[in-house]
Amino acid sequence: NQTFGTLERALAVGRELKRYPQVHCLESPIPQGDIEGYRTLKRELGYPLAHHMGNPEPIAALHSDVYDYFILGARVANTMRNAHICAARNKPFWMQLGTEATGVSVLFMLHMAAAIPNATLAHVSLFLLLEHQLLQEPLNIENGQVIITNKPGLGADLDLDAVERYRV
């Protein structure tokens, strides 16, 4: 995120990426507060732009009409608040968990997404990079999607031995 650094570099990289049809959007390629830079990227490259909520403030980001998608990844109250703000402008979003994710937090995120009408984009979690999901059974993934069970609660049981083994 913000890895292209400058607007000039983002434009150059974006032009190179045009060779790859699987590139669908650019996620926070330059410093997020640079709304004018994002306007230039959109005008010059035509890619949809994804923005991590935070800087600029969510309402300012939405009113700029520069961003096509939003990325939410914070506490539940902030996620719900930002989801409502996005809904007011008919903007879809995805939720994202980094390496702090476990099988439990992924299930929670997916249940929360199911309750938010505009959480329509593929959600991101890096839990597969972890040594253990902390669940008795690993999450069932089919065709790139986690399959939610009909079990009570979040639909999974903790592996208490793993919780103890990885306790910090």
Short description:
The chain has helices at residues 7-17, 35-45, 58-63, 76-88, 103-114, 160-165, and strands at residues 26-27, 49-52, 69-72, 93-97, 124-125, 141-142, 145-146. It is of the alpha/beta class.
Write the layout of secondary structure elements.
Elements: H1 7-17, E1 26-27, H2 35-45, E2 49-52, H3 58-63, E3 69-72, H4 76-88, E4 93-97, H5 103-114, E5 124-125, E6 141-142, E7 145-146, H6 160-165
Question: What do you see in this structure?
Answer:
The chain has one domain (7-129): TIM Barrel (Alpha-Beta Barrel). The longest helix has 13 residues, at 76-88. The model has no long low-confidence stretch (mean pLDDT 88). The protein is of the alpha/beta class and 168 residues long. Helix 1 (7-17) runs parallel beside helix 2. The strands form 2 sheets. It has a 5-stranded parallel beta sheet, with helices on one face. A two-stranded antiparallel sheet has the order 6-7. The protein is built from 6 helices and 7 strands. Helix 3 (58-63) links the parallel strand 2 (49-52) and strand 3 (69-72). The protein has helices at 7-17, 35-45, 58-63, 76-88, 103-114, 160-165, and strands spanning 26-27, 49-52, 69-72, 93-97, 124-125, 141-142, 145-146.
